[in-house]
User: Fold these one by one.
Assistant:
Number 1:
Amino acid sequence: MPPSESPYARALGDRIHELHPVLQTYFRAIPDGDVGVGEGVLHRIGTPRRWLWPFLRPLERRGVIVACWESDVPFRVENRTIASRAVGEREFHLAGGSWTMRDAVALTRHGRVVDELGEPGLIAACFEVDVQGGALALTSRAVGIRLGRLRIRLPRPLSPAVRLTERFDDVTGRQHVDLTITAPVIGRIYEYNGDFSYRIEEAAP
């Protein structure tokens, strides 16, 4: 594939045609000068385990995950393809104010995708990419922490499992996203799910 293709399309190869046609557009490269814009509502976001919130605050300040448990949260996502990476910025309108999550996805030499979250990149998760019933499914295989130039891979017994599914509903005409993070022993420590509409438009100058 051409180097300008998205990491998701390069990881899937010909299997990208198994995705719903709308998702094929979503996960392909965005042309130079354009931006992909999604607007919708998260039905829930965060974790009800309030005792975890103090541990999540440092990650919240870096734009990785947010320490809250809220429902019906409006959000907006802007996607771009920059140097063959899928770069996203998601703004969530929470009760206490707006919060922004940033990430950049690249392809590994093993054909998986690695998502660096935070600004600057703090957490890196390596995912297997699959297609299930027309939906895109990501399952983490490794999670690491970046400290300066050093990346520390968490040992498997301590590593959280991250799962994300993106699907399109022809009845509602909306795209649905569902993410969960599960930690060993503790169980689910973070999640969000919701639906949105998506379009590609010319980027503002």
Note: The chain is about 10% helix and 55% strand.
Number 2:
Amino acid sequence: MSSHVVVGAGPVGSAVARLLAEAGETVRVVTRSGSGPDHPLIERIAADARDARRLSELTRGAAVLYNCANMAYTKWPELWPPVSAALIRAAKENDAVLAITGNLYGYGPQPGGRMTERTPLAATGRKGRVRIAMWEDALASGIRTVEARGSDYVGAGADSIFSAVLIPAIAKGRTAWLPGDPDAPHTWTYVGDMARTLVTLAREERAWGRAWHVPSQPAVSVRELAARYAELTGSPAVRLRRLPRWVMRTAGLAVPMARELAEMDYQFYGPFLLDSQETESAFGLTPTSLDVALLEVGQSSRPTPSRRGSPAAPPTPTAVTPPK
């Protein structure tokens, strides 16, 4: 019997599992492949999270069930509902707390780009509506649940515009074509802070029944983040060029990934500001320095930049991965 069950072994799921195991808790990590961190207190199980019966069996006796899974970006409306329903059922049948790894998609575009825990869920896009439905279904089910919402991740293994666009450009000594405004202020959430927030909220009864924002450092632009990364890692300063907004929108007529990215492009063509003051005040959590996150990226990426790189062509829509 495991005290905690973590569904998903990506950067967040792995960080949650390690954090719990290092505190002496027993953890069961559930993925389709049976992957997960290597630790004596971590049991790795291969199972399909859409199988509600199997997931309920695997959650038996657990105090907390963590949803740290992610779905193919172009198939959220098809893939998320059965997984979310299975997680809710597993939590309900085992009287476990369901701790959900959330994001900011449910808010949709906001005036000035600022979002607090009290900002209404007003998204009208496909992915935003999926996240709203997941949260509302969890609340309506009567289970004990909580959601931690973070912005675009930075840190080892994090999949974001930073890792997908900037790191490859730095490694090749080429220009980075950014699908957004490189000077727009943007909040970045450290993967480790997401894990710590999830674990903290799952243990706190006063946190249940609502969503909280992950403590994150003040917003900085992609240009500022890239410059700091170069300074910390000794990498050459990357050249940034703004990809015209119409490129992804036009490509989206034929390329599914481009269509999904275009739907969410407001996050990078204007300010995108997460306010986490309420969470920080309520639970005494503080954000980790972005320097720590960037050094993790540098250590895991180990770029080998070319001395004489030439500007690369703008990325094809399929080459740019989603923020999460």
Note: The chain has eleven helices and 13 strands.
